[in-house]
Amino acid sequence: MEFRYLGSSGLKISEITYGNWLTHGSQVENETATQCVRAALDAGISTFDTADVYANTKAESVLGEALKGERRESLEIFTKVYWPTGPGGKNDVGLSRKHIMESINGSLRRLQTDYVDLYQAHRYDTETPLEETMQAFADVVRQGKALYIGVSEWTADQIRAGHALAKDLGVQLISSQPQYSMLWRVIEEEVVPTSRELGISQIVWSPVAQGVLTGKYKPGQQPPAGSRATDEKGGANMIKRFMNDDVLTRVQGLQPVADELGLSMAQLAIAWVLQNDNVAAALIGASRPEQVTENVKAAGVTIPAEAMARIDEVLGGVVERDPGKTAETSPQKRPA
């Protein structure tokens, strides 16, 4: 495993980070989820990312139980706040001071820890003054409940404004967690340059484009039974933007590149995002322990420049690059 600094901080994290978004507490049994976490630890992964909204708080509980007994100082545990949790009452959502303060306490209890290493705003809250949000995050840090703060799916302008307030408050906003893959590059034009300037790293989710970049989805064929594209709980909706024959045909064209480098398609996709020097970590999930074991082989891989150019040539115009997609795919008001 390789380790990278997170932003301009002194915190090092594993460049392959384990995330439990669509699996723990919902798609896989708790015993299997624990086995996946054990496989991650065995592979040298020390950084674990979750959120209170995943499986409506159950994912945090599963992760906390799976990590119980590990030396806390050897781990980096991240979680997030914004989306509705609990019964979904009027204040059970967003980035108000009330919701942040109540949510961090719930997350710590479920994760069985006194603090998280990184507490992240899971989306931008258009209905709460940014000053209120950043003051609450600063107080969470001062109370010792989080060491650093970050954001997820914020635009470059939102990141700049949040970073300025955090600096004024004396706390470190050091990370951004966006979607990023060979197929989804919307952060490259604005978010990445802004982050580089401010000393912020990316922790990227869905580096294999919800599984599309593994090559398992074939053009003109039905998705494999049990795959994310058949999951009506949310997975199918997330993946549908990539599920067309043009995209799937071009993805199949990446197989020779992967073969020449001695990588699986998934390993190639994960290694690709890690070539970006503003990316501190690629988030991987798993429904089976062997998936973790295979995916971590992308750590430390250098893809030659000519192979990077071939990837661009193969994918061509199916790559989404519009920086406006970050705002477009974010909620314009708090979800009910």
Automatic annotation (TrEMBL):
Gene3D superfamilies referenced in this protein's UniProt entry, alphabetically: NADP-dependent oxidoreductase domain (3.20.20.100)
Sequence segments annotated as region (Disordered): 316-336
Coiled coil regions, renumbered to chain: none
Domain (NADP-dependent oxidoreductase): residue spans on this chain: 15-314
One Pfam family from the record: Aldo_ket_red
Biased segments, Polar residues type: 327-336
Basic and acidic residues bias spans: 316-325
Alphabetized UniProt keyword annotations: NADP, Oxidoreductase
PANTHER family per the UniProt record, alphabetical: HYPERKINETIC, ISOFORM M (PTHR43150:SF2)
Family: Belongs to the shaker potassium channel beta subunit family.
Protein name, UniProt field: Aldo/keto reductase family protein
Organism: Cellulomonas wangleii
